[in-house]
Design brief:
The protein is about 60% helix and about 10% strand. The protein has 21 helices and five strands. The chain is an alpha+beta fold and about 400 residues long. A hairpin with a 2-residue loop joins strand 1 and strand 2. The longest helix has 24 residues, at about 25-50. It has a five-stranded antiparallel beta sheet.
């Protein structure tokens, strides 16, 4: 588990800068002080998440402001709004905890970067999931006049949307009205019949009626089918009900309509790789990496895999090496290094990766375990591998 400790020097710097009378501080010193507070505050929050608690995270949210963001300019039924507010005392903590992929138990979070200017900041956090999957949150941050750090909102790249947008959409679906639905559509001349079908579609999604949903969407006008809310809702629904065939169909539509949207990269990878659309997967990964705008070992390791299947072993090796430089304790980085080094016939380097995978992560990687991977056939025939194997007898 990656646990990030708050730097003592960072905290001392922040204290000294903040303790200096404001009139004696230069603008640069004030900015450095704020940056240190953003960094230290996010490190504390991530550390506590890794210990299994979201208390500090939840305490950093201004509940009233957060609710205002959920409601926004959405035309939510007044009864639904009232019920939401009445239940908030008991549901708020659970609602926030639902944002963490896989739940709080065994949560592994890594703070990838914090950027700030003035009282506004941005942080990116990676969540490590089973089977070498990863989620990312991009947090909007605020430092108030008392130097308290607030999490304003965040983008969840596994769900492809801002958190408050997702909650707000669920409130619209609870009791959809024609004006609320019309506001979701990005063109004005919507026929009444189409508006009715669109409303029924969102009701079917709300009630998880997949067959009904498919029947409706197949009859929708093309302009309605390509609406962002429809494309995203389709994928989210099919993932919720765990229907692989329907999920694939929904992802194909997402790939057709929004192939360059970095918000959708993590979802689209579940379509691109099984469909062997490796170039599309690579470009989608680059789009997300550019959006995150931070160095990340997991992203480098995934780029290594995508580059390798595209036939570029040199770039794959470079990405794998950068992943290891960034985070030598990331298992996927060593698997990427193993395959890239084997492709380059760097069998000594491949054996080093095998040793790391065994000693760090507890694998037993003899011939029988590796021969199922055809890409490692050259390694298994190499002198370096067989010499290493002999030392394990």
């Amino acid at each position: 588990m990656a646990v990030i400790k708050v730097s003592k020097n960072l905290l001392i710097t922040a204290f000294l800068l903040c303790a200096t009378p404001a009139f004696a501080q230069t603008a640069e010193e004030q900015e450095l002080a704020r940056q240190a507070l953003f960094q230290a505050g996010m490190e504390d929050i991530v550390n506590e998440l890794n210990s299994g608690s979201a208390d500090r995270f939840i305490a950093s949210i201004d509940q009233a402001d957060f609710v205002d963001r959920i409601f926004g300019l959405r035309l939510i039924d007044q009864r639904v709004k009232r019920q939401f507010r009445e239940n908030l005392e008991f549901s708020f903590d659970g609602m926030i905890q639902s944002a963490f992929p896989g739940g709080m138990e065994g949560l592994r979070a890594t703070l990838l970067g914090v950027q700030s200017r003035g009282s506004r900041g941005r942080a990116v956090v990676r969540f490590d999931l089973p089977d070498f999957q990863f989620g990312y949150h991009e947090y909007d941050l605020l430092l108030d006049e008392k130097d308290r750090l607030f999490i304003v909102d965040w983008v969840d790249f596994l769900r492809g949307e801002r958190f408050t947008d997702g909650i707000g959409m669920s409130l619209i679906q609870a009791a959809p009205s024609k004006p609320a639905i019309r506001k979701l559509i990005d063109f004005p001349d919507v026929r009444e019949s189409d508006l009715f079908q669109f409303t029924e579609l969102l009701k079917a999604a709300r009630d998880r009626q997949a067959q009904r949903y498919v029947e409706i969407i197949n009859g929708l006008d093309e302009r309605l089918r390509r609406q962002r809310v429809v494309v995203l809702t389709s994928v989210q629904l099919m993932k919720q009900i765990r229907n692989r065939r329907m999920t694939r169909t929904a992802l194909m539509q997402m790939a057709d309509y929004y192939p360059e949207e970095p918000l959708y990269t993590l979802m689209l990878l579940d379509y691109y790789f099984p469909a062997r659309k490796y170039e599309e997967a690579l470009q989608s990964l680059f789009a997300l990496y550019d959006r995150l705008d931070v160095d990340d070992a997991a992203m480098e390791a995934r780029l290594s895999a995508a580059t390798l299947v595209n036939g570029n072993a040199g770039d794959a090796n470079a990405h794998a090496n950068k992943a290891l430089q960034l985070e030598a304790g990331l298992e996927l980085a060593w698997w990427s290094a193993l395959r890239a080094r084997t492709a380059l016939e760097d069998f000594s380097g491949a054996v080093e990766a095998l040793q790391q995978l065994e000693t760090r992560f507890g694998h037993e990687l003899g011939t029988e375990a590796l021969q199922r991977d055809q890409g490692l056939a050259g390694l298994l025939r190499s002198t370096e591998f067989n010499d290493w194997l002999a030392t394990r007898q």
